[in-house]
Amino acid sequence: MLKRLIHPATPGGAAGAGYSAYMSIRDQAFELLAANRRTTDGHMYTVPSPDAYPYQWLWDSCFHAIVLAKSEPEAAMAELRALVSRQFPDGMIPHIIYWVPGNLHRYDWGTNGTSALTQPPMLAYAVWEIYKETHDDAFLAELYPALAKYYEYLIDKRDPHDHHLVGIINPDESGEDNSPRFDAVLHVPADISLHDHLARRLELVDANRTCDFDAELCMKRHFWVKDVPFNAILVENLRILEHIASLLGKEDGEHFCKLNIELVSAAMRERLYKDGIYWSHVAITEYEPLTVATWAHFAPLFADLYTPGEARALVEGQLFNEDTFWSPFGVRTVSKQEEAYRPDGYWRGSVWMAPHWFIYKGLMKYGFAEEARVLRDKSIALIEHAGFREYFNPETGEGYGAKDFTWGALVADMMDA
Ligand code: GLC
């Protein structure tokens, strides 16, 4: 327990009022996942929100599978099978699969019924969560070739100058579409509107299209960011893939993972870390830090990339600092000190459940169980207050964006503290 935990846990905590609230939200989470389940052409998947996001998204499906693993492992398996069924020949897994063509709210992020971008590589983690519950070796063996091909694609095609850091070609690949972390690369001002920001990202997709989404060309010509959460998530997933490869007796795969865990971790330390904090960088020619302070600072906790001393300083000095990230309703995605900070802004300061979940897991990893419980209780209180919304105002708890949004279901996986 930190000496200065600013906000004590909800009275009663997990064993009192918090426990029944948790159980109720948990039940609602499973109901929501069941209600958002769809089947198209024999593929079963879950839409993040029926109105706003009526397709299948890559990291969302990994979140769904992580939660479903414990209650409905067959549905969790089906969700991941649907994802890998649209893997590209080069190994990339697209960030959206438009199972129902010509449906609502479709922006063209690519071609042939899918986007041509990817999203943070949570797939191995999701597969492993299912395996932990089922011990189904056949499922591991079935998914392994797609997993191996996907992570090899990232290491190979997304790192053409062999710096051992994987690049993203569009902010949407970070999963944080509008984050001001990318403003400098997009050449947009801190107060840009949601509408203008989307227009700018769609322009980038058009530019990506002129390179035929070839990652090397796209990165060299238009947008090449070595993003901290993406690479931290990669490292943690490679650790899991190494374990899967070893269980399946895939020595080459095991070796590939072991090597790249070391290389990517070391490169993150060498190029993205400064004075106690990891920063994303733009890397077209020189490495330039992207200096807007966002929750990305905390993502490496998920992959054990800070030393215990650094983690303590970060958690105490930033995560639980009310002047920067800690708010009455959880963790701001952007520091309150930033010019771009907007409590109602889409990824520009508002609270989102996936960052909460990653931070929760990171806190647990470093033994900050009490702090993790506080964050879990904040997440539950927020959903009780505003429902299963897409994002939330950190200062007032108001919910915004998509309704019946599945990310709130991640609280069902925050049970250990
Ligand atoms: C938004 C989020 C993205 C998510 C998608 C579907 O675009 O920024 O991370 O995958 O919605 O929920």
Structure description:
The chain has 417 residues and is mainly α. The chain has one domain (3-416): Glycosyltransferase. Helix content is 47%, strand content 8%. Strands 7-10-11 form a three-stranded antiparallel beta sheet. It has a two-stranded antiparallel ribbon with strand order 1-2. Helix 2 packs parallel to helix 4. The chain is globular, with a radius of gyration of 20 Å. Alpha-D-glucopyranose binds next to helix 2.
Topology:
Layout: H1 17-35, E1 37-40, E2 43-46, E3 56-57, H2 58-71, H3 73-84, E4 96-97, E5 110-111, E6 114-115, H4 123-134, H5 137-157, H6 183-186, H7 194-210, H8 215-221, E7 225-226, H9 228-247, H10 251-272, E8 273-274, E9 277-278, E10 281-282, E11 288-289, H11 299-302, H12 308-319, E12 326-327, E13 330-331, H13 353-365, H14 369-386, E14 391-392, E15 399-400
Antiparallel strand pairs: 1-2, 3-4, 5-6, 7-10, 8-9, 10-11, 12-13, 14-15
The site of alpha-D-glucopyranose (GLC) has 7 residues, from α2.
- Global geometry: globular
CATH architecture: Alpha/alpha barrel
Give the low-pLDDT segments: 6-17
Overall number of structural domains: 1
- What integer value in Å does the Rg equal? 20 Å
Total of DSSP H or I helical runs spanning 4+ residues: 14
If strands are numbered along the chain, what order do they take across the biggest sheet?
7-10-11
Structural class by SSE content: mainly alpha
Helix percentage range? 40-55%
Reading the helices and strands in chain order gives HEEEHHEEEHHHHHEHHEEEEHHEEHHEE
How large is the share of residues in beta strands?
5-15%
- Count the strands? 15
CATH topology: Glycosyltransferase
Overall pLDDT confidence:
93
Major sheet: size, sense and barrel closure? Answer: 3 strands, antiparallel
In the CATH scheme, the class would be Mainly Alpha
Cα distance spanning the termini: 12 Å
Which small compounds were modeled alongside the protein? alpha-D-glucopyranose
